Amino acid sequence: MKRPGIENEPIKVQTNFFEVTKLPKMKITHYDVTISPEVPPRLNRKVFACFSEENKNVLGGVKPVELEKGSAPMTKTRPPQGFKIVIRKARDIDMEDLFQFLNAKGNMTNNCKMAINAMNIIIRHEISAKYPTLRNPFYTPQGATSLREGIEAWQGYYQSARPTMGKMMINIDLSATTFYEGGPLIQMVAKILGLRSPNDLRRGLSDMERQKVEKRIKNLRINDNHRPENKRKFKIEKLTQTSASDIMFDIDNGNKFNVETYFQDKYNRRLLYPFLPCVIARKNIHLPIEVCDVIPEQRYMRKLDRNLSDKMTNFARQNPTIRANRIQTGLNILNYQDNEYLKQFGMEISNNMAVVNARILPTPTIQYHQSSRESHVRPNGGSWNLRDKKVINGATLNSWSVLAFLSYKDLPDQAIKFFVRELITTCQDTGMNISERDPSICRENPIGDIKESLTKAWLKARNKARGVKPQLILCILPNTGSDLYAKIKRVSDTVIGVATQCVQSTHTRKPKKQYCANVCLKMNIKLGGENSFLIPKHIQFLADEPTILMGTGVTHPSPGDNEGLSYVALCGSVNVKASRYAVSIRVQCGRTELIADLANMVKELLKTFYQTCGLKPKKILFYRNGVSKSQFMYVLESELAAIKAACQSLEADYRPTITFVVIQKRHHTRFFPIEKKNADKSGNCLPGTVVDMDITHPFEFDFYLLSHAGLHGTSRPTYYQVLYDENGFDANRLQTLSYNLCHTYVRCTRAVSLVPPVYYARLAATRARLYSFSFRNTDTESSESVAINFGAVEELQKVMYFI
Prior knowledge:
Elements (H helix, E strand, L loop, with lengths): L10 E5 L1 E6 L5 E9 L4 H14 L29 E10 L2 H7 L7 H19 L9 E11 L2 E14 L2 E14 L2 E2 H8 L14 H11 L3 E4 L8 E3 L2 E6 L4 E3 L5 E3 H9 L9 E5 L3 E4 L3 E3 L11 H11 L3 H15 L5 H5 L3 E2 L4 E7 L5 E2 L8 E2 L18 E2 L2 E5 L8 H17 L3 E2 L5 E4 L6 H15 L7 E6 L4 H15 L2 E6 H5 L3 H14 L6 E2 L5 H5 L2 E9 L9 E9 L7 E9 L8 H16 L5 E7 L6 H19 L6 E8 L6 E3 L15 E3 L10 E5 L11 E8 L5 H11 L14 H15 L16 E3 L14
Helix pairs in contact: 10-14, 11-12, 16-17
């Protein structure tokens, strides 16, 4: 969609975009280069650099830049002495198409895409020869932080050429990833086992320790250090089961030696740790751990555990001022001004962060029950509280129980009862009706049969309420582990059919009012109540005519899981004020971009809307999450057709007007306030800051919206792009509606970063993954269209059980 007009007085903010002040004007020639035999990327670069240097005259003095395609594995043989290079001209890239596109005089042609790709190759070429590079970002050991077990966090810098309004910009941002620490392998082994120094290894390794070390260092690249003049490189295959002093092998003359003696006699190297196992490398080579060094700059590719993940998050998180300064540091490392490749292609890039126009949208008014002392509230700084407020529709709780997965010693009954009293008081104060004030308390083993445990709690609640069906089980968990939580949700949602509210035991010992209030909000929603809604004039688009909001959420398999499934959720509002939602869930082939069964999912939600409020939606506002930019049109064509087909399958002439908006959170755009009055207390831009010019699409309808207040680090705005619009939105109306909706998220009294239908869909998709649905498609040819419908029991589907 083309960009409509905008309103509101602009302010100025800085953004991490740097203007390309001079663009290449000549044609850029693209050649396909084949180097044989195939070798790893780093050697490929050296070979090509050597070729370029030797053939300067033939190349007319030009330094070519190359784009890596694919990567050969690390070879187990010595590199070849000679290489064959074949160069074929592929195409000329004419920059004129790009100039036309930037100035809104032409569309995004294939030539435009090639020109932008060429610019990305030019800006990355020099830096990728100096530092480890992963697609866009490059990483530097400067400021690296040790995390644990021989793993360290490295600061990285992302750079990407971006077309904007009338100009090209370079988006530069921070990145972070994990590397193995370089240096002696013996040091790494000590760290993996949590020892203070290698001296603590003198007792040898237990079988369990050996397995732990082997798992961590398998495939690690090392070099030996016992012959400094002739270091060799290896990849670790495994560890021996016996120590260096026990491993025997034959020498040519028939004599037998152990590894310890061999190194003493052959290299005059007395082993300090002969009681440790050896590393097994290529051709069955046995190397004592102490003669191995870990080659630096190797990425740690495994999934981080919770502790490491938290440390990594803290390393990567910086407040806006620090982030802006570090981006400037990255710019200095990139040193565009002295980049020979940029110069020869006629490119120049500004050293200054772009200053762009922004606007701050007005804060909406939130309505609570009219009996509240404060029934209307305008949030200040993106948050508010429940003091003196009662929920719009408070649920009644007649039958419930408490299930504690802790012993009496860890959490006595009186502590549980005190927490329950505080929670009930908070629920009553906020408008809920808790008729059962003394729920039964059960205790069960966290590693026991969870179905049996929940069933006991369910029966206790029913018996105490004299046969009334239990509505809720309050589960107290011993720690933050996710396994127990997953089991509870799977059983309660899909087997028993009762709402559960999980709380951590740490919060029950000295319950805080705010914590109890947040738990109360979730309980009210799970029991069918409503917490709040916006006053009609702040959701005018919904108030004018019956309108359904829809949002998608997808969770894909973990990296490396080639047989994993994707879980897709579609959330839709079920009333005219969009204060309650229903969800439709499918399981489909992993990493499929399209939602395979979207037509039936939309049909389900349209029916639910009609059944709930007796009205047919006349308008559909569809927020699509999780689509890469290159797939926008592909997704639009397929899924818009599916939405229309769903409508017409209900009634042949049922054609509600549709607006299809893609939203993205995975991008590298950040904003930094210039004036203090436009910053919140965390140093971020104020909630409601919207940018829809200068760094956005040259002419299409898109914008960045920062709808939440910053808590930690630098806030990430959400990117919205309108792909299709039959509802006649102008920019201000859609931006304001989206921002206002972000104040209706039911789990907290804060404006959130995503519109609620998308947020809820993500929660529902994540919940679906917890069910560990064991479906595996056996028909590989039709796997792309496979979508299995499943979810909570029917009773729970009437409420927002996934909150």
